[in-house]
Prior knowledge:
By secondary structure, this protein is α+β, with helices and mostly antiparallel strands. It has helices at 24-28, 48-55, 131-134, and strands at 3-6, 10-14, 63-67, 83-86, 92-95, 98-101, 107-110, 113-116.
Amino acid sequence: MKKEYTNGEVIITWQPDKCIHSAICVTGLSEVFKPREAPWIKMEAATTSQLIEQVKKCPSGALGFRMNSEKISDAEMRPVSMVVEVITNGPYIVKGDIEITHSDGSKELKQSSTALCRCGASNTKPFCDGTHRKIDFAG
Length: 139
């Protein structure tokens, strides 16, 4: 499932099944991200640039964005650069634009930041779903 929110300039996408509930969005822009309200994203509460910068910080990739008039080109599907961070007792955080090829051959572009499972117990592999906390993963 994917939900979309727009302010006319940017579209923020949210995929709840990928969310690891880090709350980075809520703590970073609490006037925009209000998980106890519906709709939970208040686009009008921040500028487009503020929205984009906050979405880029999402470690799971559950939040994404695109400009309303933007189409993804082949050139944008290739990573420019990336950094991989190992989170103690948690996922790998891949920072940068990456293309993931799934086992069925389908491709998915992940922009900005993506959390990849390191414990092996995620129900949304290769992505982290926060299960590492439930199983007390150490690593």
